[in-house]
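We emphasize that the prediction below concerns an isolated chain of 174 residues; any contacts that depend on oligomerization or on bound cofactors are therefore not represented. The input was used exactly as deposited, without trimming of termini.
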Amino acid sequence: MLAKHGILETKKCRCCSDFSKQCRLCSEIGNCIWYYHRFKQTHLKGPSWRNTDMPPTGYKNKPSADKTDFSGIISALINCTWMQNYFTDDLSLNTNICMEAREEVNALRHIHGTNIDEGEMISLFNSLLTLLNDPAYLNSFKPADEARTYLTQVMSVIPQITLKNQELINYMVF
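Result of the prediction step, given as a token string:
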């Protein structure tokens, strides 16, 4: 797409660092982001970090999805109304499969220790599997299928890990 518009993928658009001097392509991309943003307000010039549950600094130093963490990806899915086409669950609701997965991941990321019990881990994996099993698109998407396979394999060893940890704790205590 970039090459089609005369922009090399390895280069940044020079004029677009100044919002008032954007090229046509960057301007169109900005308009699409604003148009499809779930939380836009007409009196604003577009979405802002204040109304998106995204970090205040955003992800401006993350040039692609593969350089972005789960929170950034899932927030983009939630905030973009166009992404509703790829989910059967209604992403405009406060409780949906994307929000549940984000909450589970955030709970794990903000845990106050190094221990997580088996139930919490299974809950996290189940929320991710629910997301990956959504029949609208992800259920038949090859990378999602590979992630499902991996999560299922990890889930199968959780009881063994829990048992080994308990055996180790019992050995150390007695």
